[in-house]
Design a protein that fits this description.
The complex is a heterodimer. Chain A is mainly α. Helices cover 70% and strands 3% of the residues of chain A. Chain A has a domain of 157 residues. In chain A, a hairpin with a 2-residue loop joins strand 1 and strand 2. The radius of gyration of chain A is 23 Å and the shape is flat. The model of chain A has no long low-confidence stretch (mean pLDDT 87). Chain B has two domains: 245 residues, P-loop containing nucleotide triphosphate hydrolases (Rossmann fold), CATH 3.40.50; 39 residues, no CATH class. The mean pLDDT of chain B is 91. By secondary structure, chain B is of the alpha/beta class. Chain B is globular. Chain B has a six-stranded mixed sheet. Chain B has a four-stranded antiparallel sheet with strand order 2-1-4-5, with no helix packed on it. The longest helix of chain B has 16 residues. Classes of the chains: A mainly alpha, B alpha/beta. Chains A and B meet through helix 8 and helix 9 of A and helix 2, strand 6 and helix 3 of B.
């Protein structure tokens, strides 16, 4: 359970780690936009090169990112199957006893998988180089201008930071309960269907019970310390934007413009 | 049938920036049929150590011998069920693992998983419920309605009903009141003395170690640095100082009296014999 790569912060000291979280969030949104511009394989190739160089800049290992993508494989296979059945345009690539697979189905799947992979890489770079708390501070600041439209920026940030805070706790708890039930002879790998259902129940019920208990305790603890969401508060940690952050945002903007230009010219 | 660790090392999250060696070459043999205390500071590797006993964790290096099984690093063991049936492991705060609608159903869950016939399993479960000090009227209640201490009893009954050969408990008295922890420890004594089970208890309470345990294993920084019988362990004053362990009250009092000049024998381990010895010494002076 401790090997989950998706969304995990990796404490390293790199230029990406030192960037301002607000700038990183904006840059990520910009890069996601750029990925969504239909530029074909050339554009995606360029994006891939850029993103991989950012991976090296952040000192992350490439196989860490590949592990982050593993959970997605199932989805891609599913997508491939649907595309093969639904898309009937382009030329015929394979013909198995009258069942035809068309080129567009394959290209579509490839497009979507490359896009998804690039998106996961970009978001993983963000979460791996930014402490969860900095991330929520960034989100809160970026949402601040929307406060006048009654967007509860602080509450949203608080909810996200609490949720992020409890992910490792829940993983630990799951691990613990799994081991405790394994000691009682639960075997998630083997056994009949009915036994498996019971095995999963023996994991989920205690997990729910303790999660609700934790939520209640946390609410009490916050109340005991007089937490009021609307109260004006200062911050211990001040975010600072430097020329590096502006420079990164400029590059992202340039990438978006270049991708739009490429899409139009194609 | 031995329970032995041979040069066992265990590393969490190997090959990642989070890699952490919790055990570094543990070498120890656990005496059968005894109550053994495992002590050591928080984070010294006690919990990691005991999870090797029923192969919840597999050694990164070395080998673990448990009863008729040998688990060697790098070899994936098969048929873990029989091992887990023989070594009952109770985690810290086991009350969080209850999940069934009724207490009986929850206790019976273990034995059924290990393939015990339903009728036999029910008998065993009711017996286990009695052993932990709850009567049969509890059988049909929901485990979630019980108090914390009762929940823990039910969870322990769930392991006892499996009828393991070795019973391993990770801080079973944490968070219980003195009365509750006393009866909990007495329960494990009964399991050892009456049912002949080998019992291993991870604990921080030196009073418990002295009163209830036969042997003691000291874990420090992922290594077993000492194995000794409880009495000679508490007799060795310089050792306790070196390990930074506060001795039990009786031992401490005997020592202070000796320092103050009273002549007392060194092998006094309970309050009655201490009182007797003091009385004898005082009377001898009159």
């Amino acid at each position: 359970m401790n090997n989950i790569a998706l969304g995990r912060y990796i404490p390293l000291n790199s230029i990406m780690h030192r960037m301002d979280p607000r700038a990183k969030i904006l840059a990520m949104l910009g890069m996601l936009t750029a990925i969504f511009i239909p530029t074909g394989f050339i554009g995606y190739g360029i994006m891939a090169v850029i993103i991989i160089s950012v991976v090296f800049m952040s000192k992350l290992k490439l196989n860490f990112l590949i592990r982050a993508m593993k959970p997605m494989m199932f989805m891609l296979v599913f997508l491939m199957i649907i595309n093969i059945f639904v898309l009937k345009t382009g030329y015929v690539v394979v013909d198995i006893y009258g069942f035809k697979i068309y080129s567009d189905a394959i290209f579509q799947t490839l497009y979507i998988s490359i896009r998804l992979m690039l998106m996961i890489m970009i978001t993983t770079i963000l979460t791996a180089t930014t402490k969860p708390l900095d991330l929520t501070l960034g989100i809160e600041d970026l949402l601040a201008p929307f406060k006048r439209f009654k967007v509860p920026a602080h509450e949203i940030a608080m909810m996200i930071s609490i949720a992020l805070r409890f992910i490792p706790t829940l993983i630990e708890e799951t691990d613990r309960i799994m081991k405790a039930q394994a000691s009682r002879g639960v075997d998630l790998a083997e056994g009949k269907f009915k036994e498996k259902i019971l095995a999963i129940l023996s994991l989920i019920v205690p997990l729910f019970v303790s999660s609700f208990q934790r939520a209640e305790d946390l609410a009490d603890a916050m109340e005991a310390r007089g937490y009021v969401p609307q109260a004006p508060r200062t911050r211990y940690k001040q975010l600072k934007r430097t020329w590096r952050d502006n420079f990164m945002l400029l590059i992202v903007l340039a990438i978006i413009i270049a991708m739009v230009a490429l899409a139009i010219s194609l | 049938m031995p329970i032995a660790f041979k040069q066992v090392s265990y590393e969490y999250s190997p090959g990642t920036p989070f890699a952490y060696g919790a055990l570094n070459g543990v070498d120890v043999e656990i005496t059968e049929g005894k109550v053994t205390a495992i002590i050591g500071a928080t984070g010294s590797g006690k919990s990691t150590l005991i999870q090797h006993l029923n192969a919840l964790l597999l050694p990164s290096k070395g080998e673990v011998e448990v009863l008729d099984r040998t688990i060697v690093a790098g070899v994936k063991p098969k048929q873990l069920k029989s091992l887990r049936q023989n070594v009952g492991l109770v985690f810290q705060f086991p009350e969080y693992q209850l999940f069934e609608e009724t207490i009986l159903k929850d206790i019976i869950f273990g034995p059924i998983n290990f393939g015990v016939e339903p009728q036999e399993a029910e008998l065993r479960s009711l017996h286990a419920l009695n052993v932990v000090g709850l009567d049969e009227s509890y059988a049909e209640k929901s485990p979630l309605d019980l108090s914390g201490g009762q929940k823990r009893r039910v969870a322990i009954a769930g392991i006892l009903a499996i009828d393991p050969y070795v019973l391993v408990l990770d801080e079973p008295t944490a968070g219980l009141d003195p009365q509750g922890s006393k009866s909990m420890m007495n329960l494990f004594m009964t399991m050892n003395r009456k049912y002949g089970k080998t019992v291993l208890i991870v604990t921080h309470d030196m009073e418990h170690v002295l009163t209830y345990c036969d042997e003691v294993i000291v874990v420090d920084k992922g290594k077993v640095i000492l194995k000794s019988d409880v009495r000679s362990f508490f007799k060795d004053e310089s050792l306790l100082v070196e390990l930074n362990i506060c001795p039990p009250k009786v031992v401490d009092m005997r020592r202070q009296l000796q320092k103050a000049g009273m002549k007392l024998p060194d092998d006094i381990f309970d309050i009655e014999s201490l009182a007797m010895a003091i009385a004898k010494e005082v009377n001898g002076h009159e």
